[in-house]
Write a structure and sequence with these properties.
The chain is α+β, with helices and mostly antiparallel strands. Helices cover 36% and strands 23% of the residues. The chain has ten helices and 13 strands. The chain has helices spanning 3-18, 65-81, 102-118, 170-194, 209-220, 226-235, 248-259, 274-279, 287-294, 309-315, and strands at 26-28, 35-38, 43-53, 86-96, 122-130, 136-146, 161-165, 240-243, 262-266, 300-304, 319-326, 330-333, 340-342. The chain has a seven-stranded mixed sheet, with helices on both faces. Strand 2 (35-38) and strand 3 (43-53) form a beta hairpin. Residues 355-362 have low confidence and may be disordered. The structure holds adenosine-5'-diphosphate and magnesium ion. Adenosine-5'-diphosphate is lined by residues 12, 15, 30-33, 50, 79, 245. Adenosine-5'-diphosphate binds at residues 12, 15, 30-33, 50, 79, 245.
Length: 362
């Protein structure tokens, strides 16, 4: 069978079936945001690893090395945050093509360590080798959690309300703007080469500079919601949690699958930033599409039983209620008057290259 038939998640499932031996210390193995390993009667070690490949996850024509380091750290810490844990240590493995300057690698680690410093996490090791292809980055993050407050993907129950922190869609829109910028530069360069004067001023994207900067910043330097994740966990209000890395449609589907539930998602309640709303008429897709399938927002998606809504409120974290857990399938209701349609997981899936889905960049 071809990888493209199985898809990323089918492949992970097959690996999971082949590797089902458990040690007594494995509380959660393959299948959640991070593995959960017992290291004491009440203490848990969280372990997660993510790989970033040039031209699959990031594009060096519009990504600076400082941001690349920052983001490599961020996406791993986000997986620790999604379990309600506290990140402590990181390891990095790099496969470097010979043409990459030393300064670029130093910039990568400046960005990487800047993000770690914010979350009191340290780099403790890794591996370095040469690459005959593109740049490959692998980051492992280790964190800790208490048995009592750990949140996995599996605990959602019918009737629980679905919440998301912050806003969604900025990262996908930011990536589109970066790509459009590169396309324009190339067109301009071709025009200059051929001596033709630029007349196509109409195609320029007219988005206020501040909004453009905000969207791009969220794509290149996402913030892992470590502190919010920890506070949600400590309060005990959430029954399940996942971070939004692949896109709301895919990540909600993962959560439902692991919990054995369905969901009803209200499309008209998805929170968008002011920057995305101000840019909406200049972008190729409506904000909801970026939220559902853009991915890389690294917000936390979690469920709260009705009896614990007050506990969540008391935390005063910026969250929005966007749906309800059901026993049926995952469904989307685009607006209040609209009918319910099946929620297709249109976020990024390696090997499948899903339709309507931008290539994941960084
Ligand atoms: P996330 O988007 O949160 O990083 P992934 O979709 O990458 O999660 O992975 C889902 C689960 O599958 C995780 O538990 C991860 O550890 C596991 N996993 C992914 N790829 C592999 C692999 N090649 N071998 C073993 N486990 C894997
Ligand atoms: Mg995750």
């Amino acid at each position: 069978m071809k990888l493209s038939n199985l898809g990323e998640f089918g492949l992970i499932h097959a690996i999971q079936q082949l590797s089902s031996e458990r040690s007594p210390g494995t509380m959660i193995g393959i299948g959640d945001d991070a593995a959960v390993l017992k290291i004491g009667p009440a203490k848990l070690l969280l372990a997660t690893t993510d790989m970033l490949i040039e031209d699959v996850h990031f594009d060096l024509s519009y990504t600076d090395f400082y941001s690349l380091g920052w983001k490599s750290a961020s996406i791993n810490l986000s997986d620790i945050a999604a379990m309600g844990g506290v990140p402590r240590f990181c390891l990095t493995a790099l496969a470097l093509p010979a043409h990459i300057p030393v300064k670029a690698v130093m910039d990568f680690y400046r960005g990487f360590n800047a993000l770690l410093r914010i979350h009191k996490t340290v780099l403790v090791g890794g591996d370095t080798c040469s690459s005959k292809g593109g740049l490959v980055i692998s980051v492992t993050a280790l964190g800790e959690a208490k048995k009592r407050t750990l949140i996995s993907r599996t605990g959602a129950k019918r009737g629980d309300r679905i919440f998301v922190t912050g806003t969604l869609g900025d990262s996908g829109a930011g990536m589109e703007l970066l790509k459009a910028g590169i396309r324009r530069q190339k067109t301009e360069a071709r025009r200059q080469e051929s001596g033709v004067r630029s007349k196509d001023r109409k195609s320029a994207i007219r988005i206020p500079q501040s909004a453009m900067r905000a969207l791009i910043e969220r794509h290149l330097r996402p913030e892992p919601r470590v502190e919010w994740g920890r506070r949600i966990a400590m309060s005990g209000c959430a029954s399940s949690m996942i971070d939004v890395s692949d896109g709301l449609s895919s990540d909600l589907s993962h959560l439902c699958e692991e919990s054995g539930t369905g969901a009803l998602l209200f499309g008209d309640r998805i929170p968008f930033s002011a920057a995305l709303l101000r840019s909406a008429d200049q972008l190729r897709k409506p904000p909801l599409d970026y939220a559902l399938s853009g991915g890389e927002d690294y917000e936390l998606l979690f469920t709260v039983p009705l009896t614990r809504m007050k506990t969540l409120e008391a935390l005063r974290i910026p969250v929005t209620e966007i749906g309800t857990i059901t026993t049926g399938k995952a469904m989307l209701q685009v607006n209040e008057a609209g009918k319910k349609i099946p929620l297709q997981p249109t976020g990024y899936n390696h090997f499948k290259g899903i339709k309507n889905c931008p290539k994941r960049s960084t």
